[in-house]
């Protein structure tokens, strides 16, 4: 790793938008009311929706589906105080199926939500790369602050660190090494690009791919330490200097788990909206629907970059994301997802 | 890394105290008043102490030397609001020498303080292990929350991540690998020990030492991922099964930088109070005083475990830490350090 230069503050602009892609509210689809009822009012309405003979699912969607993360946090706290009962438990006992899963994930604090999703993925009997998506997403398509909060939530919830569970659950050494590097990152989060470093590290990555050393310390260091803007410049550089995009060159080495994981990492860093458009597209297209992935894609990005994902979806699939969701889901589950997408049914 | 077991919640007690050693206030020497003046009053008194012909150093010590981290934070914020001037800048322009350095370090938020100390260490012309102490201390003798806050502060202050600066500044590959692993950690922070894991990993460490593979991925994983209680049990196990303490076995391989760094890591994890007693002792004993180390030792631990450090100092040096500090310093610097030690001069 001797060749790594220090990035000085030569604030050269990359072609990417200067505002952080992950700022909540910036490019999200969630519609929050201009004047929101107090957490007490919301809690009372939720309590009423849970009570009585039938549950008022529409009422629940109307409230929670139009509140942002900080508002939902206040509702959770207030509900607990008012009724001495956890809002999550109440939802769990009143709703069911995919609708319940989606509302619960949406109601958790985002850090607890991702910690639980990661834990579920690591303990799942389903193996393979698809299952590890959430870990890549929270490391490569989220803010460093969010990742740190997820790691803290993981420790609180599961009595060990996320890294310990990765080592215990992922049997492939190369995958383990990459995932450990990624989840341990705390990247610089502003736009700061050094083109010399981009050049140098594009070459280093190219060399590693040429010699098939995909988990060389240098590769892990570059992917898990450099800031997202710097990495995008490095990937641009790679394509300009070496002809192909870096993920294409990696996939030429094989279509195994390691190559697929690295492709996912690069996509999440380079164009998270494309990754999530594909998560949602893949969950819908073909026989049957993968509700867990569909829910994860929409619930985790509705407050972040769903507007961009919608555009990318159109680019990739030449059809509307919203229509696809409506066509492939039904009932309250559909109504809830459409609400998070900013629509009405 | 295949052999690592998952640690299940078999809450076996280790011999260590169950309360976190790093809880602020628990074993600190700092004396905070029962009834503290408001941040406004404190700010006004500080402003007065700075004004006029001479600076009122005693007044400054009397206030800041008796406020904990959260109180100092409020004073910083209030001072800024009242006088449109940073408290740190004011201290910088009114005080001088080692006294100034100590008061400024004490006044910073602990995360900013350690980020600045780490940055200074990485940019220092002084080379060698001694210089890297602060990085080991914040990774191995602090809470995971504090380490995450330091990494965030580092990004905000220096326009790159701590890891990027470690890679750019530390030229030795093995040292770099260990430091990167340590600073990236987010350990589980409660007392949870699995004796099977301790046994297994004590053997793995022993094997790595025997084969001189001190920076094997397994070693870095164990030292930078396991919780402090688990690691202490592993070190105990090592000594029981293999005769010597692990740091002794490491030092048998040589007295180079790598061995010394690992020894420091183990000491900081196993008995941080012993590490800091030695930091303070070494800074005082012999010709001249190393004021920077002395200040760091006292300022960073006065709110954490100075009572334990004092005891360890007596064990090691058969003399009083407080007497040593008084004997080796003078003037306002002495008065300030003694105040943080809970004494009066």
From TrEMBL, chains A, B:
<feature type="region of interest" description="Disordered">
    <location>
        <begin position="1"/>
        <end position="25"/>
    </location>
</feature>
<feature type="binding site">
    <location>
        <position position="52"/>
    </location>
    <ligand>
        <name>Ca(2+)</name>
    </ligand>
</feature>
<keyword id="KW-0106">Calcium</keyword>
<feature type="binding site">
    <location>
        <position position="329"/>
    </location>
    <ligand>
        <name>Ca(2+)</name>
    </ligand>
</feature>
<feature type="binding site">
    <location>
        <position position="94"/>
    </location>
    <ligand>
        <name>Ca(2+)</name>
    </ligand>
</feature>
<keyword id="KW-0677">Repeat</keyword>
<dbReference type="GO" id="GO:0005544">
    <property type="term" value="F:calcium-dependent phospholipid binding"/>
</dbReference>
<keyword id="KW-0111">Calcium/phospholipid-binding</keyword>
<dbReference type="GO" id="GO:0009414">
    <property type="term" value="P:response to water deprivation"/>
</dbReference>
<dbReference type="GO" id="GO:0009409">
    <property type="term" value="P:response to cold"/>
</dbReference>
<dbReference type="InterPro" id="IPR018252">
    <property type="entry name" value="Annexin_repeat_CS"/>
</dbReference>
<comment type="similarity">
    <text>Belongs to the annexin family.</text>
</comment>
<keyword id="KW-0041">Annexin</keyword>
<dbReference type="GO" id="GO:0009651">
    <property type="term" value="P:response to salt stress"/>
</dbReference>
<feature type="binding site">
    <location>
        <position position="284"/>
    </location>
    <ligand>
        <name>Ca(2+)</name>
    </ligand>
</feature>
<keyword id="KW-0479">Metal-binding</keyword>
<dbReference type="InterPro" id="IPR009118">
    <property type="entry name" value="AnnexinD_plant"/>
</dbReference>
<dbReference type="Pfam" id="PF00191">
    <property type="entry name" value="Annexin"/>
</dbReference>
<feature type="compositionally biased region" description="Low complexity">
    <location>
        <begin position="1"/>
        <end position="23"/>
    </location>
</feature>
<dbReference type="InterPro" id="IPR001464">
    <property type="entry name" value="Annexin"/>
</dbReference>
<feature type="binding site">
    <location>
        <position position="50"/>
    </location>
    <ligand>
        <name>Ca(2+)</name>
    </ligand>
</feature>
<feature type="binding site">
    <location>
        <position position="328"/>
    </location>
    <ligand>
        <name>Ca(2+)</name>
    </ligand>
</feature>
<feature type="binding site">
    <location>
        <position position="54"/>
    </location>
    <ligand>
        <name>Ca(2+)</name>
    </ligand>
</feature>
<feature type="binding site">
    <location>
        <position position="288"/>
    </location>
    <ligand>
        <name>Ca(2+)</name>
    </ligand>
</feature>
<dbReference type="InterPro" id="IPR037104">
    <property type="entry name" value="Annexin_sf"/>
</dbReference>
<protein>
    <recommendedName>
        <fullName>Annexin</fullName>
    </recommendedName>
</protein>
<dbReference type="GO" id="GO:0005886">
    <property type="term" value="C:plasma membrane"/>
</dbReference>
<dbReference type="InterPro" id="IPR018502">
    <property type="entry name" value="Annexin_repeat"/>
</dbReference>
<dbReference type="GO" id="GO:0009408">
    <property type="term" value="P:response to heat"/>
</dbReference>
<dbReference type="GO" id="GO:0005737">
    <property type="term" value="C:cytoplasm"/>
</dbReference>
<dbReference type="GO" id="GO:0001786">
    <property type="term" value="F:phosphatidylserine binding"/>
</dbReference>
<dbReference type="GO" id="GO:0005509">
    <property type="term" value="F:calcium ion binding"/>
</dbReference>
